[in-house]
Write a structure and sequence with these properties.
single chain, about 250 residues, mainly beta, four-stranded antiparallel beta sheet, 16 strands, about 10% helix
Length: about 250
């Protein structure tokens, strides 16, 4: 797109975009929100910034781009469904100062932003940004989250690949765990393209989960491999209610 800032340039300048899950479909839509706090408070002579937002589908293909100037204490609330109404994947945002700042060598400034997820029932949950975009592949240590067995059929995970390198596909394994630490099952994860994402229900991962968990009140899912940002656990109910939380 004309005048578009490339993510690689933002990373090189020391303002790596942070990555969050994007979902726009018949059930959930995503709004991203940012506040020009850091530069307004600490860079008082030149607080103006450019907010850059990149949107990708689940296969990591860029599906949209947005840019807006923010002045002192400026705010952004962007309904991403207006840019890509039927796209789910990832959204990355960076606030880049309009005037060069004197950052210490090696210093990086990420954007403090968050996403709100709206369902048929209204605003249902939000998530703040966690991991910045990575320029090179990286190993992922084990992420684990507990779930309630009574909501097994409604539960699942969202996995986000925060690596932008062309050779940075995510690979890894998932394990179904008892809360006492016993491994109940293990399987390979589907490959996730750079800057892509996948939403998988627990029963799609482990079709025998009900039998394996048995009468236990809870269970856990564990994920490890390469290039996996902090996963999201979710519950999605037939009445449209939907919850999403970082591991």
């Amino acid at each position: 797109m004309p005048g578009e800032l490339q993510i690689s340039e933002a990373v090189a300048r020391g303002y790596p975009p942070a990555v969050l899950y994007l979902r726009n479909d018949e059930t959930v839509t995503t709004e991203v929100c940012a506040f020009n706090y850091f530069f307004s408070v600490f860079m008082k002579d030149h607080p103006e910034v450019d907010a850059h937002v990149w949107l990708f589908d689940g296969a990591g293909k860029q599906a949209g781009y947005f840019h807006r100037e923010l002045g002192v204490n400026g705010q952004l609330q962007l309904q991403t469904s207006g840019l890509c109404p039927r796209v789910s994947g990832t959204v990355a945002m960076a606030l880049v100062p309009k005037h060069e700042t004197k950052l210490r060598p090696g210093r990086k400034v990420t954007t403090g932003y968050y996403a709100q997820y709206f369902s048929q029932c209204g605003a249902i949950t939000l998530s703040h940004e966690r991991e910045p975009v990575a320029a090179a592949p990286f190993p992922t240590s084990a992420w684990m989250q507990s779930y309630l067995t009574r909501f097994l059929r409604e539960s699942g995970v969202v996995l986000v690949n925060s690596c932008m390198a062309s050779e940075g596909a995510s690979v890894g394994t998932a394990r179904l765990m008892a809360l006492n630490g016993t491994a109940l099952g293990e399987r390979a994860l589907p490959e996730i393209a750079p800057m892509g994402a996948v939403r998988i229900s627990t029963l799609d991962l482990f079709p025998e989960a009900e039998r394996l968990i048995g009468a236990d009140e809870g269970f856990a899912l564990e994920f490890k491999g390469t290039n996996i940002a902090s996963p999201f656990s979710y519950y999605e109910f037939a009445n449209g209610k939907f919850s999403l939380h970082h591991f």
